[in-house]
Amino acid sequence: MTKKSAQRVSSKRPASAIGSGKARALGKRSIILFGALFVALAFGAASYLSGDQFRSSSAAVPQRFPGDPNPLVSGKAYFGASGNYITTHEAAAGKSVAIYRKFNQWNTASSAVSTINSNYSNNRLVWISFKTPKWSEVAAGTHDSTLDSMLRTIDNAGKPVWVTFWHEPENDEGQANAGSAADFVNMQRHIRSRMDALNTTHIAFAPIYQSSKIVSMGSTHNNWYGSGIWDFIGFDIYQPNDTLSILNSKWTTTIAWVESKGLPFAIGEWGVRTTAPSSQITDFWNWQFTNNKDMVGISYFDSDANSDGSWILAGANNTTFNNILKSDAKVMRVNELGSSTGGGGTPAPDTTKPSISLTSPSNGETVKGTILVTGTASDNVGVKSVTIRIDDSYVKSDSTSPYQFSIDTTTYSDGDHTIKLRAFDDADNQADSATITIKVDNVPASTGGGSSGGSGSTSGGSSSNGNTTVVSTKTSSSKSDPVPVEGTLVIKPTSPSSDVSVKVDGKEVDGNAVNTEGLTNGTHTVSVTEDGKTKHITIDVNNPWYLALLNHFLANYGLYAMVTTAGASAIWLFHRQISGLFSIFPTLRLRH
After folding, report:
1. What CA–CA distances, in Å, run from 495 to 397, 442, 501?
2. CB 302 within 8 A of CB 99
3. Structural contact between residues 512 and 491, judged by C-beta atoms closer than 8 angstroms
4. Least enclosed by CB within 10 Å: which of 124, 234, 385, 584?
């Protein structure tokens, strides 16, 4: 229907309107519009091909409660610890411990505020567990004056803080200063009602259970849960048995239980023995993200204040923990939260650039073959990625420390080349290292017969001399890392006596030299069979524009011929129709 309507309008347009000023203006606007669109697309393509990709400031993550990293949106969570070694970890990592767990007695809100402020200024979120009077008394409102004062004082600090009143309650069931499961849930519900009455906007409220108790109690553990009370659920989990991974059925059962409640979760305490494989720390952290779990934070119990022995991080476990703080991009920190729907406030924007140094190779060094370029980077919040630029063109990036890049120098011409590293932080501040110059020297001084046909210094690589590129039959390449070629490509056999045959894109060529001037620009597959074994080498042809245009036309000759034939047929048909039309109105024919 739309097409028919458009045809009716077109058929009724007066012939004089074709050349009218209005139509010309519309044409100019169209030209300007398409021109602007072309420039924008060209600029975007150039930006992308330059390699540093499109980078924009991270948008604020919507928060469901104060301090919520919303991992299913941001892909991040807090990673931290309790104990007395926070600054030691930060000194080793060069980054803040993202979450700090603290344990306070009842009616100690003033000291809690000091803890909140000092940690927030160091880019740490605080999660505090308070002891309470007897659960049934708090539930009955007996201690409301103290409770209200504590909640107001903490909330007035103006920083997001996570609060738990009495962690691991199942451990204390029936004790005189505690109570029953029903008493605990009633106390939690009453505390939430006081938070609502006071309109607290910076406090997130959560219980902390024991994972082992959830498993051992089965469905009875639901007696300790009350719907509509908490912002998330916390757990403590330990693995004292080194022969059993912390990622066992105990943990998966715990997660299944919390997911049935529809709430996010966090880990208030966890630990593995120092004799356990340090990979358990990384595996436990990564498992939550790999399995798309709504885990908002994880705090290691870095302390010996435990009845069944010390859980202090040491040795390889300590190194692994610090490396996550230093390098893992999944670690959220409070100054990354942005604007908050839960009253967390808007931290000052991060305008501090990262620092970056290129540590290897050294300036002026002569190199050949594959080299390793290394660097160090740090930032006040966190380094997001480091890129390497050779001759001021993007090559590749690395988002994990230590930052290092394997570079095949045989893909570059012999002579001087510049290298620098560029670091980006999470706020997209960027900084460059000092630029160094290296001298690539891969082509042997003499191309004579040589002393042996074995794997010499250039074996497995490629070299370029003018418009001739020489590759060995052991050259490594791929579609993402092809061998650049302009002019003639020569395949150098492993030994002079080797039987070598060459095909380009499946078509056999004579000898072992390929004239790439007859190929279209872009990647091609060179199949080299030497002594019965075939190796595929990907090359990237870069001919001058006139050769590229000619080769493109020749490669697509059939398509162009078909289009040309179709066009000629259309013109002839149009001519016949017009002739037929004028034959009906002979009086309109031009008279001689």
Report:
1. 37, 19, 14
2. no
3. yes
4. 584
Confidence band of 467 (pLDDT split at 50, 70, 90):
low
Span 10-28, average pLDDT = 38
Distance CA 297, CA 383 (A): 20
Query: What does DSSP assign to residue 167?
Result: S
Among 194-198, 221-225, 266-270, 391-395, which stretch is predicted with the lowest mean pLDDT?
A: 391-395
Q: Residue 467 carries which DSSP code?
A: T
Which three-class secondary structure state does DSSP give residue 173?
strand
Q: Are 373 and 404 in contact (CB under 8 A)?
A: yes
Whether 462-543 and 75-336 are alike in CATH topology: the answer is no
Task: State the chain's mean pLDDT as an integer.
Answer: 80
What are the structure tokens assigned to 46, written together?
Answer: 């150039």
Q: Which fold has domain 355-440?
A: Immunoglobulin-like (2.60.40)
Cis amide leading into 361 (omega within 30): yes
CATH number of 75-336: 3.20.20.80
Residue with tokens 């301090």: 67
Q: Is the pTM of this model over 0.85?
A: no
Q: What confidence category does residue 219 fall into, taking pLDDT thresholds of 50, 70 and 90?
A: confident
Query: Could you tell me if 331 and 382 are in contact, meaning their C-beta atoms sit under 8 angstroms apart?
Result: yes
